[in-house]
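Lab notebook: predicted structure, single chain.

Context: the supervisor wants predicted structures on file for every construct in the current expression panel, including those that have not yet been purified. This is the next one on the list. No modifications to the sequence; it matches the entry in the shared construct table.
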Amino acid sequence: MQLVFATNNLNKLKEVQSLIPKHIQLLSLKDIGCFDDVPETQLTIKGNAIQKAEYIKTHYGFDCFADDTGLEVEALNGEPGVFSARYAGAQRDANDNTNLLLKNLKDKSNRNAQFKTVIALHLNNKLETFTGICKGEITTTKHGTGGFGYDPIFKANGYDHTFAEITLEEKNNIGHRGKAVRLLVAYLNNL
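Prediction complete. Output recorded below exactly as produced.
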């Protein structure tokens, strides 16, 4: 089976490739010659995932899946949420995003947060979605050099280290994207 993962994010691609069974050939947008700025204009994480998957299927004809992920912080009414990648501006800079989030939480005692990933699969002219959630908290300072995005300031419930301090394998076991991908893989294995 061949599936396109509709992302240009090489970190996401690496994470997901480590979870997909070997009999599924994963293609990137680059592999199919897609250099478009795939739209993400929906107001929900699920809506963006669906929009991206439908765009690739409609414009390139490939069976595919797309994901969208957001960090939802309780004390900020779910912010940054669907705007996580561009929280600090259109430049989509992870360092700027984490700095702004830490600044906005400076005087907040409630640091509860969750990462949420929704995967939209467009396969055989049918659309399915899979959701993974990882609950945790936002630290007061950055820790670790691994991972990407908000990983240096997110600590999953029951863990003493941020996502940036644990291995990719550990992150995939407990993380939002890993949970969503495992649901996707279970679905694909039952076809």
